[in-house]
Amino acid sequence: MRISIGSHSQTVVVGLAVALATIIGCGSAPEAGPFEPAASDPHDHPSAGPHGGSLIELGNDEYHAELVVLDARGDDTTPTVTIYLLDSTAKVATPVDAKEMRINLTHDGNAEQFILTATPDASDPAGKSSKFVSDDAELTADLDLDDVKAQLVVTIGDKQFRGTIMHHDDDHERHTAR
Fold it and tell me: Who has the most CB within 10 Å: 34, 49, 102, 145?
């Protein structure tokens, strides 16, 4: 028995075969090239600063500050809050002309302001500082409160920078002076 397919039917069958092959493919997968990780975000920076402290973003990642809190639990060491000013990568100390920084905070409906004074590191050039310190025990304690909202304020050149401080003393050992 012979089945004859007319030219119109042949065109439909060939068209369906081509469409099906296009949808399904010919069974061979394209070769995978070597794995290339996604390009890193230019704003990537470490999760902690060079001294192990919390990072604070200043401006549009123009600068970072590192918050290091040492408390005096159980010994005679003076509690201190130290801010290290860092570059946009949050890795390199950045000495500036500023003589002080401020931490503005609120808790329990009360607003307070604390001054951190320039305390140049040995590697800072004369007249500049990348390190700012306060030995106010109240500031150290307030930064550990659950309901505290804190902001760092510093003027670099003619521009004022603000950054939100996120600090809670989850690791008492790390922040305890020895």
Answer: 49
* Model confidence pLDDT, tens digit, residues 65-88: 999 998 766 565 788 999 999 999
The answer to whether 88 and 62 have CB atoms below 8 angstroms apart is yes
**DSSP string spanning 37-65?**
PPPPPTT---SB-TTS-EEEEETTTTEEE
- To which residue do tokens 């809050």 refer? 81
Strands ordered across the beta sheet of 110-118: 54-58, 63-70, 80-86, 131-134, 110-118, 100-107, 149-156, 159-165
Model pTM?
A: 0.69
For residue 154, give the DSSP letter: E
Q: Which amino acid is at 113?
A: Q
Closest of 102, 140, 136 to residue 118, by C-alpha: 102
Q: Give residue for tokens 């099906």.
A: 20
The Cα–Cα gap between 58 and 52 comes to 18
Helix (H, G, I), strand (E, B) or coil at 19: helix
Distance CA 36, CA 50 (A): 29
Sign of CA pseudo-dihedral 70, 104, 47, 133: negative
**99-120: per-residue pLDDT in tens?**
999 999 999 999 999 999 999 9
